[in-house]
């Protein structure tokens, strides 16, 4: 048809223009490469031209191929993680020694390096918070007032956290906040006005790691005697202690 013929002519014209442009750019590239070498009339000039012409024809194609390869690799690459703006700590077994279902502030004891780690994060300009499962409430072993009193004691010992989030539900309740679900992490991030991807979650068991990953935050595992070997094996980042964990965040 006339339309198809017109399209074919337009495509041919575009190809011709492209070929002329490519030839012109290649000639300019050759001239630039010949510039520092021997001049016309010099005994080595013709030999230099013979050496330069083939590579001047192939280099642009190779450059385009490398650019396309780089673009393809970039498309499939994992995005670089955002700069952290907040550190969210697990409470029991991470910031304080784990006393099962503790409702007594007098029994609160900081883990080694906890105050120094929190202070270091705070000094670097990061917000700090706590995300903690407290299933003792659902089990009837303590009430929310007791949990809040223990949290207040931890707050006092650590110089005040920017946000606290705890889950009162049990494992069978099917809530979205109990770790390894992401709700505590996303809620704390919202409290702090940051994206969950800008948060680092530091904890001592696999549920802390899984909650971080589910929220698209970055996890750091600090193992204790209760941490299972497979949790250590599967964690993306493992630190021997809290200070080292915060150091990983700040690297």
From TrEMBL:
Q: Where does the UniProt annotation place the signal sequence?
A: none
Q: What is its main location?
A: cytoplasm
Q: Which GO cellular component terms, listed alphabetically, does the Swiss-Prot or TrEMBL entry include? A: cytoplasm
One Pfam family name is: Hydrolase_like
Record key words, sorted: Carbohydrate metabolism, Cytoplasm, Hydrolase, Metal-binding
Q: Where in the cell is it found?
A: Cytoplasm
| InterPro entries per record | HAD-like_sf (IPR036412), HAD-SF_hydro_IIIA (IPR006549), HAD_sf (IPR023214), Heptose_bisP_phosphatase (IPR004446), Histidinol-phos (IPR006543)
GO molecular function terms attached to this record: metal ion binding; phosphatase activity
Any single GO BP term:
carbohydrate metabolic process
SUPFAM superfamilies linked: HAD-like
Q: What family, per the record? A: Belongs to the GmhB family.
Q: What is this protein called?
A: D,D-heptose 1,7-bisphosphate phosphatase
Q: Species name for this entry?
A: Dietzia cinnamea
